[in-house]
Amino acid sequence: YLSELDRQIKLMKENIISQHSQRDSIPETLENGIIFGVQNEFAFQLLQGHIQDLISHGIDGVKRLNDNFDNLNSKLEYVIKKKEFSKVKKLIEMNSTQIQTFIAETERQIEGIIGKEKIFEDNNLFNLYVRPYLNKWNDSKELLINKLRIFVKKNEDKLYLSQVKYYLEVSNPIKLDLLSSYISIDVDQLKERLVRYIEKNKLNAKIAKDSLISQKIESDISKNDLHFFKDIKTVGNKIYLHFKLNNPTNFNFKDIQMSLKI
Protein backbone atom coordinates (compact mmCIF):
# COMPACT_ATOMS: atom_id res chain seq x y z
CA TYR A 1 0.00 0.00 0.00
CA LEU A 2 2.73 2.47 0.97
CA SER A 3 4.77 1.77 -2.16
CA GLU A 4 1.68 2.33 -4.31
CA LEU A 5 0.93 5.57 -2.46
CA ASP A 6 4.52 6.72 -2.99
CA ARG A 7 4.15 5.99 -6.70
CA GLN A 8 0.92 7.98 -6.91
CA ILE A 9 2.44 10.91 -5.02
CA LYS A 10 5.47 10.85 -7.32
CA LEU A 11 3.22 10.91 -10.39
CA MET A 12 1.25 13.77 -8.86
CA LYS A 13 4.46 15.70 -8.16
CA GLU A 14 5.62 15.16 -11.74
CA ASN A 15 2.25 16.38 -12.96
CA ILE A 16 2.56 19.57 -10.89
CA ILE A 17 6.05 20.20 -12.23
CA SER A 18 4.87 19.55 -15.75
CA GLN A 19 2.01 22.02 -15.33
CA HIS A 20 4.34 24.70 -14.02
CA SER A 21 6.86 24.12 -16.79
CA GLN A 22 4.10 24.71 -19.34
CA ARG A 23 2.84 27.96 -17.82
CA ASP A 24 4.36 30.06 -20.60
CA SER A 25 2.27 28.21 -23.17
CA ILE A 26 -0.97 28.41 -21.13
CA PRO A 27 -3.22 31.40 -21.81
CA GLU A 28 -3.42 33.76 -18.87
CA THR A 29 -7.18 33.31 -18.53
CA LEU A 30 -6.83 29.53 -18.29
CA GLU A 31 -3.82 29.72 -15.96
CA ASN A 32 -5.80 31.85 -13.54
CA GLY A 33 -8.93 29.81 -14.03
CA ILE A 34 -10.73 27.74 -11.42
CA ILE A 35 -9.83 24.33 -12.83
CA PHE A 36 -6.07 24.95 -12.86
CA GLY A 37 -6.09 26.42 -9.34
CA VAL A 38 -8.30 23.71 -7.85
CA GLN A 39 -6.23 20.90 -9.37
CA ASN A 40 -2.99 22.34 -8.05
CA GLU A 41 -4.37 23.01 -4.57
CA PHE A 42 -5.89 19.54 -4.36
CA ALA A 43 -2.61 17.98 -5.44
CA PHE A 44 -0.65 19.97 -2.88
CA GLN A 45 -3.12 19.02 -0.15
CA LEU A 46 -2.54 15.34 -0.96
CA LEU A 47 1.19 15.99 -1.03
CA GLN A 48 0.85 17.73 2.32
CA GLY A 49 -0.90 14.71 3.85
CA HIS A 50 1.81 12.33 2.72
CA ILE A 51 4.58 14.67 3.86
CA GLN A 52 2.84 15.18 7.19
CA ASP A 53 2.63 11.43 7.83
CA LEU A 54 6.26 10.90 6.89
CA ILE A 55 7.58 13.80 8.96
CA SER A 56 5.38 12.91 11.94
CA HIS A 57 6.90 9.44 11.84
CA GLY A 58 10.36 11.01 11.62
CA ILE A 59 9.74 13.33 14.57
CA ASP A 60 8.41 10.42 16.66
CA GLY A 61 11.63 8.59 15.87
CA VAL A 62 13.65 11.64 16.92
CA LYS A 63 11.80 11.71 20.25
CA ARG A 64 12.49 8.02 20.88
CA LEU A 65 16.17 8.40 20.10
CA ASN A 66 16.36 11.55 22.20
CA ASP A 67 14.73 9.86 25.20
CA ASN A 68 17.15 6.94 24.85
CA PHE A 69 20.21 9.10 25.57
CA ASP A 70 19.71 8.94 29.35
CA ASN A 71 19.57 5.14 29.30
CA LEU A 72 22.66 5.00 27.10
CA ASN A 73 24.60 7.34 29.38
CA SER A 74 23.81 5.14 32.39
CA LYS A 75 24.80 2.00 30.51
CA LEU A 76 28.08 3.54 29.34
CA GLU A 77 28.92 4.66 32.88
CA TYR A 78 28.47 1.08 34.08
CA VAL A 79 30.56 -0.42 31.27
CA ILE A 80 33.36 2.13 31.78
CA LYS A 81 33.53 1.24 35.48
CA LYS A 82 33.94 -2.40 34.47
CA LYS A 83 36.84 -1.29 32.24
CA GLU A 84 35.28 -2.91 29.17
CA PHE A 85 36.66 -0.19 26.94
CA SER A 86 36.15 -1.91 23.58
CA LYS A 87 32.48 -2.42 24.43
CA VAL A 88 32.13 1.29 25.27
CA LYS A 89 33.52 2.23 21.85
CA LYS A 90 31.11 -0.14 20.12
CA LEU A 91 28.12 1.28 22.01
CA ILE A 92 29.06 4.85 21.10
CA GLU A 93 29.64 3.96 17.44
CA MET A 94 26.47 1.85 17.23
CA ASN A 95 24.27 4.61 18.67
CA SER A 96 25.87 7.24 16.43
CA THR A 97 25.42 5.08 13.33
CA GLN A 98 21.80 4.31 14.25
CA ILE A 99 20.90 8.00 14.50
CA GLN A 100 22.79 8.99 11.34
CA THR A 101 21.15 6.15 9.39
CA PHE A 102 17.68 7.11 10.66
CA ILE A 103 18.16 10.75 9.63
CA ALA A 104 19.60 9.82 6.22
CA GLU A 105 16.73 7.39 5.51
CA THR A 106 14.08 9.94 6.50
CA GLU A 107 15.77 12.58 4.33
CA ARG A 108 15.86 10.10 1.43
CA GLN A 109 12.13 9.44 1.74
CA ILE A 110 11.33 13.16 1.89
CA GLU A 111 13.50 13.83 -1.14
CA GLY A 112 11.81 10.94 -2.93
CA ILE A 113 8.47 12.71 -2.55
CA ILE A 114 9.28 16.36 -3.19
CA GLY A 115 12.67 16.05 -4.88
CA LYS A 116 15.09 18.95 -5.17
CA GLU A 117 13.24 20.82 -7.88
CA LYS A 118 13.70 24.59 -7.66
CA ILE A 119 10.15 25.00 -8.88
CA PHE A 120 8.82 24.55 -5.34
CA GLU A 121 10.95 27.26 -3.76
CA ASP A 122 8.68 30.21 -4.56
CA ASN A 123 5.43 28.30 -4.78
CA ASN A 124 2.75 29.70 -2.48
CA LEU A 125 0.87 26.41 -2.15
CA PHE A 126 4.06 24.54 -1.28
CA ASN A 127 4.99 27.17 1.30
CA LEU A 128 1.47 27.07 2.72
CA TYR A 129 0.90 23.31 2.93
CA VAL A 130 4.33 21.64 2.97
CA ARG A 131 6.98 24.09 4.14
CA PRO A 132 5.84 24.20 7.83
CA TYR A 133 6.28 20.43 8.17
CA LEU A 134 9.70 20.53 6.54
CA ASN A 135 10.78 23.30 8.90
CA LYS A 136 9.56 21.28 11.87
CA TRP A 137 11.51 18.23 10.70
CA ASN A 138 14.67 20.26 10.10
CA ASP A 139 14.47 21.79 13.59
CA SER A 140 13.99 18.37 15.22
CA LYS A 141 16.79 16.88 13.12
CA GLU A 142 19.25 19.63 14.08
CA LEU A 143 18.41 19.24 17.78
CA LEU A 144 19.06 15.50 17.57
CA ILE A 145 22.34 15.98 15.67
CA ASN A 146 23.52 18.52 18.24
CA LYS A 147 22.60 16.21 21.12
CA LEU A 148 24.39 13.32 19.42
CA ARG A 149 27.49 15.49 19.01
CA ILE A 150 27.44 16.35 22.74
CA PHE A 151 26.77 12.70 23.66
CA VAL A 152 29.73 11.42 21.62
CA LYS A 153 32.12 14.13 22.85
CA LYS A 154 31.15 13.66 26.51
CA ASN A 155 31.42 9.87 26.51
CA GLU A 156 34.61 9.75 24.45
CA ASP A 157 36.11 12.16 26.98
CA LYS A 158 35.12 9.84 29.85
CA LEU A 159 36.38 6.80 27.95
CA TYR A 160 39.83 8.22 27.20
CA LEU A 161 40.25 9.52 30.75
CA SER A 162 39.35 6.11 32.21
CA GLN A 163 41.75 4.38 29.83
CA VAL A 164 44.59 6.75 30.71
CA LYS A 165 44.07 6.15 34.44
CA TYR A 166 43.88 2.40 33.93
CA TYR A 167 47.11 2.10 31.92
CA LEU A 168 48.86 4.52 34.24
CA GLU A 169 48.13 2.12 37.08
CA VAL A 170 49.66 -0.69 35.04
CA SER A 171 52.80 1.28 34.22
CA ASN A 172 53.91 4.49 35.92
CA PRO A 173 55.45 6.33 34.15
CA ILE A 174 54.18 5.30 30.74
CA LYS A 175 55.48 6.41 27.35
CA LEU A 176 53.03 8.60 25.42
CA ASP A 177 53.49 6.71 22.15
CA LEU A 178 52.78 3.44 23.93
CA LEU A 179 49.72 4.89 25.65
CA SER A 180 48.41 6.30 22.37
CA SER A 181 48.64 2.86 20.76
CA TYR A 182 46.76 1.28 23.67
CA ILE A 183 43.81 3.66 23.43
CA SER A 184 43.93 4.06 19.61
CA ILE A 185 44.45 7.81 19.41
CA ASP A 186 47.03 10.03 17.73
CA VAL A 187 49.91 11.12 20.00
CA ASP A 188 49.26 14.83 19.41
CA GLN A 189 45.57 14.41 20.21
CA LEU A 190 46.53 12.42 23.29
CA LYS A 191 48.78 15.25 24.49
CA GLU A 192 45.99 17.77 24.01
CA ARG A 193 43.59 15.62 26.02
CA LEU A 194 46.13 15.01 28.78
CA VAL A 195 46.85 18.73 29.14
CA ARG A 196 43.12 19.40 29.35
CA TYR A 197 42.59 16.65 31.94
CA ILE A 198 45.47 17.95 34.05
CA GLU A 199 44.36 21.59 33.82
CA LYS A 200 40.82 20.65 34.88
CA ASN A 201 42.15 18.55 37.80
CA LYS A 202 40.68 15.37 36.35
CA LEU A 203 44.09 13.72 36.25
CA ASN A 204 46.79 14.10 38.90
CA ALA A 205 49.78 13.59 36.67
CA LYS A 206 52.45 15.39 34.70
CA ILE A 207 54.07 15.05 31.28
CA ALA A 208 57.85 14.77 31.28
CA LYS A 209 60.24 13.51 28.59
CA ASP A 210 57.47 12.10 26.37
CA SER A 211 56.08 10.13 29.30
CA LEU A 212 53.10 10.49 31.59
CA ILE A 213 53.83 10.26 35.30
CA SER A 214 51.14 9.89 37.93
CA GLN A 215 52.06 11.89 41.01
CA LYS A 216 49.14 10.56 42.99
CA ILE A 217 50.20 6.97 42.50
CA GLU A 218 53.73 7.84 43.54
CA SER A 219 52.54 9.32 46.82
CA ASP A 220 49.96 6.65 47.58
CA ILE A 221 52.21 3.60 47.34
CA SER A 222 51.97 1.50 50.46
CA LYS A 223 55.04 0.09 52.20
CA ASN A 224 53.64 -3.35 51.54
CA ASP A 225 53.79 -2.76 47.79
CA LEU A 226 57.57 -3.11 47.83
CA HIS A 227 59.22 -6.03 49.61
CA PHE A 228 62.60 -5.12 51.04
CA PHE A 229 65.06 -7.80 52.15
CA LYS A 230 68.40 -7.16 53.82
CA ASP A 231 71.29 -9.29 55.01
CA ILE A 232 74.03 -7.84 57.23
CA LYS A 233 77.36 -9.55 57.91
CA THR A 234 80.43 -8.39 59.77
CA VAL A 235 83.93 -9.60 59.07
CA GLY A 236 86.46 -8.04 61.39
CA ASN A 237 85.98 -4.32 61.22
CA LYS A 238 84.03 -4.52 57.93
CA ILE A 239 80.28 -4.62 57.48
CA TYR A 240 78.75 -6.25 54.42
CA LEU A 241 75.24 -5.13 53.50
CA HIS A 242 73.15 -7.10 51.02
CA PHE A 243 69.82 -5.62 49.92
CA LYS A 244 67.10 -7.06 47.74
CA LEU A 245 64.05 -5.17 46.49
CA ASN A 246 61.08 -7.14 45.22
CA ASN A 247 58.24 -5.49 43.30
CA PRO A 248 55.07 -7.66 43.33
CA THR A 249 52.92 -4.86 41.87
CA ASN A 250 52.24 -3.78 38.30
CA PHE A 251 53.94 -0.44 38.90
CA ASN A 252 57.09 0.40 37.02
CA PHE A 253 59.66 1.92 39.39
CA LYS A 254 62.76 3.61 38.07
CA ASP A 255 65.51 5.93 39.32
CA ILE A 256 65.14 4.59 42.86
CA GLN A 257 67.39 6.24 45.43
CA MET A 258 68.38 4.74 48.76
CA SER A 259 69.90 6.60 51.70
CA LEU A 260 71.94 4.94 54.44
CA LYS A 261 72.34 6.55 57.83
CA ILE A 262 75.09 5.38 60.23
TrEMBL record:
Q: Name the chain's protein.
A: Uncharacterized protein
